[in-house]
Amino acid sequence: MEMKLWGAFEYRFLFCAAAIAAVLLFDLIWYGRRWFFRRKKAVGHRNAEKKVSAKRSTADLLQLFAVPAGSLLILVMGYLGIVRIWSVLPAVSSTYPLFGEATDSYGHPVEFIFNVPVDTHKLSKNISPEVEGTWKFDTYAFWLPFSRHLSFTPDSTFLPGQKVMIYLAYMADPFHPAAGEEYLLEYTAPLMPSVASSSPVTGALDVPVDTRVEFSLDIPYGPQVRWQATVDPLVEFSFDQSDPGLVAVVFSKVLNQSTAYTVTLTRTPQLFTFATGETADQGAPEAAAVTVFTTVRVPGVASFTPSGEGVLTSAPVVLTFDARMDTASVEPALQVDPLTAGSFAWDETGTVATFTHDPFAKDTVYTVKLAPGIRTLVGGRLEQEAVFSFQTVGVVKVVSTSPGSGAGGIGTTTPIIISFNQAVDLSSAQDAFSLSPAMAGSFAWDGNTMTYSPNGYDYGTTYTYRVAAGVRSIEGLDSVDAVSDSFTTQPQRVLLDVPYIAQGQTGDGAKSCNIVAAQILLAYRGVFVSTTDLRNEIGYQEPYDGSNHTGGNPHLGFTPNYGTYWEPVAAEVNRYRTGRFLPEGDLTALLTEVANGNPVMIWGQNGVSTPTRLTWTTPDGTVVTGVNGLHSVVVRGFTGTPGNPTRIYLNDPWYGQTNVAPSTFMTRWYFNVAMVVD
Predict the structure, then answer these.
(1) What is the domain class of 400-490 according to CATH?
(2) pTM
(3) Is the peptide bond before 568 cis (omega within 30 degrees of 0)?
(4) How many Cβ atoms sit within 10 Å of the Cβ of residue 330?
C-alpha cells in the first residue's frame, strides 16, 4: 500500500494561498504601474493633467474602482477557503496495514495518514504489546509542529501471528485546542511460515551429488523465525537465505553417490532485536519438514558402504551390484587408496561383495575405485570408473549443543544436551563437563548424545557450560578443543490460572469493565454470575452526561456512560464471597497477594484515552470526581519478585490477556484502589 502525504488538503490549501498571493502581486503591479505613469505625466503637464482629469470618462472611474473591488472579493474567498479547510475535525484517513490485516514482513513501518495536519506535540501514541520503537512525523518543514503523516518502526519483532494494537488519542489541529477523534488500529504480526514443498521431494532417486535442498515456504520468512537443519549421514552445510521465499541447505562438498540422505528442517519462533541482531527470547523448536532422497547410483553398483564421515576403522567395504557379477573380474579391479590389505567374500547371489581388511588409519579419507571392465555373468561391462570415498573416524568434536549460545528465557529445569560426532568414553565426557555457577544434576546418554539434567537453576541467572579438551574416543582420536556456551534462565514468574471474561463492546457492556473484573474474581473462586445479573443487583444510577456535567453517583451504583466505583462492587461481591481492600497504591502488597494465590482487581485508567479529570453533579447535589477512560483489570501474575517485578500479567476485559511494565501499571493505577475476593 502506497501512503501519499500530499492529498486534497494540501492542494486546496495551496490553491487558496496561491489565489491570495496572485491577487496581492497583481495589485502591486497594477497600482505601481499607475503611480509610475502618473508621476511621468505630471512633469511639465500639470495644467494639461487638470484638464484631462476634469474629463475622466465613466470607463476610467469603473476601472479605478473595479480592480480593488475584485481583489477584495478574491482575498475574502481565499481567506474563507483556508478557514474552511482548517475547520475540519482531525481524524485518521488511511493506515498501513489496514485494520485487521496480517502483515507479511517487517520491511515496512506502520503508517497513519490524517485528513488534516495534527499537532505533533499533543498526539498520544500507545501500543500493545509494549515494544520499543521509533515514532516519526513527516512534517512540511522541520520547524513546523504539525504533520499529516505518522510512522512507527519497532526495534524488535513480535511473536509470530500476535495481535498488535496501536491507539492514537488527542488528535488536535495546531489552531484549535479541542481534541479530535481517537483511533484504534489492530493488525496481525507476520506469521510463522510453513514449508509448502521441498526439492528434492521425499523419495526422489538419482539425485545429483552437487544438489542443494530447497524448502519453499507458503509465506516469506523474516527475523521472527530461526531455521536449523540436520543431515543424516552427517555432512557439513550452510544456509542460503538470500530468497525470503525459501530456505536452501547448501552442502560444503559433493554428496556421496548411491547414498540415502535425510534432511530435517526445524523452525523456532523468536523475538529478534534489529539493532543488536540478538534474540531476546525464543520458543520451542518444532519440525517444519523432512525430505529423504537418494543420490545418483554408480552404474552397475546399487549401493556402497561405508560412506560419509566418522567411519569405524574396522568397518568392512561392502559393494552391492544390481546384477550377478563375474567375481573373477571384480576382485582385481578393486583399488583402495591408501593401500590396505584384505580379502573378498561373496554372498550366494553373487551380487554382494564384502572386502574385509586390516584396520584403516584414523582421521583419513579413503578412496575406493572400481576400474572399468568388470563384468556381469551375462556379459554386461562397467564402462566408466566407479569411485567412492569415506572418511574414518577422527578427532572427537561437539556437533551440537542446547541451549544455544546466548539463549534467554531458559526454564529452571531445562537440560543441557551435548552431541558428539562419534562414540566417546562416557566417564571422560562427564569429567570434562563443567557448569558455572555450579549446579548439581545427573547425566543420561542416548547414543553419542549426553544430557545433563540440573536439580534446578536459579531464576534470572547466566550459566556457562563447558566441555574441556581430552574427551576420549572409543574408535577415533581424543578431542583437542574445548567448547563452551552460555545461557540465561527465565526470571521468576508467578502466573495464576485465572479465567478470562471479556466485557461487551456496545451499550452498558462497554462501560462494565469494573463489574466484569469482579465477575472474574468470583469465577476464580467458583462463583459464576453473569455480567447482567451483577449489574442489575448493583443497581443503576443516572447516566453520565459529559456535556452538561451531570450524572449518577458511581460510588452508589452502575453509572451508564462511565462505570462503577469500588463501594457498590464490594457490596455486591460480599453477597457471594468476602471482598477486602488492599493498602492504597502499594504494589508490593498487591503482588504479594498474587504470589499467595489471590488475583487482584484494580480501579484505574485504560492507558489509551487522554486521562482528563472529570467532575459532575448528581441529582442530589453531590459533586463526583472521575477520570476519562475509567477502567478495571485483574492482576493474575508477575515476573521477578513482589518487591522488584519486571513484568505484570493482566486479565484485561477490554484488551485480553496481556502484560505491562511495572511503571506502566503504576501510571494506569489511577485511583490506587485494589480488591481481593477470598
Answers:
(1) mainly beta
(2) 0.43
(3) no
(4) 23
